[in-house]
Amino acid sequence: MGSPIAPVVANIFMEHFEKEALNSAPIKPRYWLRYVDDVFAIVSRRGVDLLLDHLNKIHPRIQFTTEEEKDGTLPFLDVLVKREPSGNLVHTVYRKPTHTDRYLRADSHHHPSHLSSVPRTLINRALRLCDPQFLKSELTHVRQVLQCNGYKWKPSLRLANTSSKTRPQLAERAPAYLPYMRGVTDKIGHLLRRKYAIKTIFRPLTQIRSILRSPKDRTPLEGPGVYEIPCDCGKSYIGETGRNINTRLLEHIRCMRKLDSNTSAVAEHALTSNTSHYIRFDRVRVLARDKNYVSRKLLEAIEIGRRPNFNRDKGWSLSPSWKPVLSIPEQKNNDDEYMTDIDLVKKP
């Protein structure tokens, strides 16, 4: 999960699953709607348990749970389905009890297209999901929510989904991603769109994930970046990788075990030198974390130029303007040293 293709693969499997399940079901549901793994079904009361047991027996790793209607209502995704006394089904917008009605504020520093998407989305959702008897109350709620978030209510907003604007034809090329700075990048984006037919996508300068730490546990050598493998001789190996740093370290260790000095400069330094070298895999340091390839190569070249090393090459060639940076002595931080659970080479 988390991959863009995951919902597609899950849906392909669920199509196969539900076809087999419905063809062999002991009780056929009167109504069956599915969105990926969420199913809305109308089944007789005596057939709910039978259908659930049947679904859970088809595949050992696919297990369903049920939520039955309460007081004639049942939420499905963001739609609240209600059963009238006549038996007809009507629907309106559903919000979880923990919903806070907090949205992107109108006075926040975001591109106007981002801000306008908030009222447009809420109003369009009300118009599309609500039956006529629920539309007025839902629009009243939307109006209060928008005003609490700093938006001005306009009667024309109710027709947001029916208005059409003529947009300039854009070229079939990669879009331009720009950080949004009011009065600067918005003018650049307007120029790119009008003069060169290039679509511009604006991003906020600061995001919450760049301020707060991730709540997930993270191993020290996880993620891409630039790393240092020291040796007892005083030199070190500086490398970069777009994968997990720990994965790259395991490859260096594997080369040393196989005495493969052609693939790894670390193995070459430890195995082909005249003097004895002890590679300190227990003192590997992460010098920089970066997912961008160009940034990592530049950082690697900078770190190679700042310390004695046994790298085979010096990485990318740097401009002479980098010399003042390379001459600054490094301030070692012990917090960047990480112990690994691999004990490969015993020091003599």
How does the helix and strand content classify structurally? alpha+beta
Beta-sheet strand percentage?
5-15%
Mean pLDDT: 83
Report how far apart the termini are: 47 Å
Shape: flat
Total domain modules: 4
- Please estimate the helix content: 25-40%
The largest pleated sheet is described as: 4 strands, antiparallel
DSSP strand count: 11
Number of helices: 10
Element order: H for helix, E for strand:
HEEHEEEHHEHEHEEHHEHHE
The side-by-side strand order for the widest beta sheet comes to 9-8-10-11
Unreliable stretches? 159-163, 334-348
Q: If you had to describe this structure to a student in words, what would you say it looks like?
A:
The two termini are 47 Å apart. It is flat, with a radius of gyration of 30 Å. A hairpin with a 2-residue loop joins strand 1 and strand 2. Helix 3 runs antiparallel to helix 4 and helix 7 packs parallel to helix 8. It folds into four domains: 63 residues; 71 residues, no CATH class; 33 residues, no CATH class; 114 residues. Helices cover 34% and strands 15% of the residues. The relative contact order is 0.06. The C terminus is likely disordered. The protein is α+β, with helices and mostly antiparallel strands and 348 residues long. The longest helix is centred in the first third of the chain and has 18 residues. It contains ten helices and eleven strands.
